[in-house]
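Translate sequence into structure tokens.
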Amino acid sequence: MARIPQEFRFDKVSIMTSSPNLQFVVQPGGKLTGRLRVPGDKSISHRSIMLGALAEGVTEVSGFLEGEDSLNTLRCFRRMGVRIEGPDALGAGRVRIHGVGLHGLRQPDGPLWLGNSGTSMRLMSGIIAGQDFDAVMEGDDSLSRRPMRRVTEPLALMGARIDTHEGGRPPLRVHGGSKLKGIHYVMPMASAQVKSCVLLAGLYAEGETCVTEPAPTRDHTERMLRGFGYEVRRVAGEGGSSTVCLTGGGRLTATAIDVPSDISSAAFFLVGASIAEGSDLVVEHVGMNPTRTGVIDILRLMGADIEVMNERVVGGEPVADLRVRGAKLKGIEIPESLVPLAIDEFPALFIAAACAEGRTVLTGAEELRVKESDRIQVMADGLVALGVDARPTPDGMVIRGGAIHGGTVHSHGDHRIAMSFAMAGLRATGAIRIEDCENVNTSFPGFEQLAHGAGLSIVSTGEAS
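Result follows.
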């Protein structure tokens, strides 16, 4: 893949990076009780903006996640000529998108800033590859270190032209005017972002575009495309694989979207209530998409007491209320079949493993090394700093449960790392200080207040930039 030319290397990457000066301090002990609702699902929020923008008509969204990642996606489509009302003017979590159709986007007046959101960059690569204009996408230091060849290579097979920085990393320059052709892409590893990128490019491609995934991954893109009236076909394969296909040249019709609460955000509270004796917590309106519920399955295998209540379907997505009570967890060997269904929840699950009796073994999760941080190494370092026996492996970790001591851990700007270690305070013997927590707002605005209200003794120190 070609390097991005010198004139497209931007100083904004360093200028707009968050300052690592916000810290969480969690006092030891406590339990989680009551009822709460976590923010809207980030994956669905991203997709609601993207597909709403490409649809014909006005799409109404409720429950939209007002975190920085989702808002950056919203701002990018505004800069490509899409009129989007809200969320502030319409009330919390409400957005109104005046779609411009598949071919109505306009060239932005400068680089598109995506902050910390790899989901935005990867999915938007597929959309922008089908436009007749050039666009540059860039992000913060963390995003600028994340690999993008996993999407630029299949897009190149479709006929797209994309320049990258050294090592296939951002910023990306997508050249417009390419005539895309449909392909059948067999993914070397399961990834919902890669699958979604190729399918979104397929909207603009001649003929049929198919993606074969070796194991199930989240299917929000396929569900939402159908919700916008676009035909998507799925054929089951052998050994858990499946193939998803669509044909280019169709149209999307505006619809209403009710975003459920994010199970990835609920996971911190599911783990926290499970590890803290005496906890009894209900997390409301949680998205229960079967491609996302691996965290519940894994916790139950460890002995967690999680009750699924009030199951229903909202806007094509299954939702439920989850009641979780404190339980004595045991270490397990995590089935590799569940890994793609819980890939974002493993930082929290590592805390559950640290509190479990015996040994927990994770394999087949090498994707964790290329998230917002190297989540295997960063979590292992933090657990060891708190006195936990944790050994990282190339594709996972081995954790032997035991006492969690107080101490200082570094989140490396990764929101899921910060929130996971916050929940560890419920079982710690001393205070835990977590460095570099500002990016928590990228996915979970109001986390500190919600956690404190449920019973976690957490305060923030320092100043947000």
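Note: Confidence is low (pLDDT under 50) at residues 1-20.
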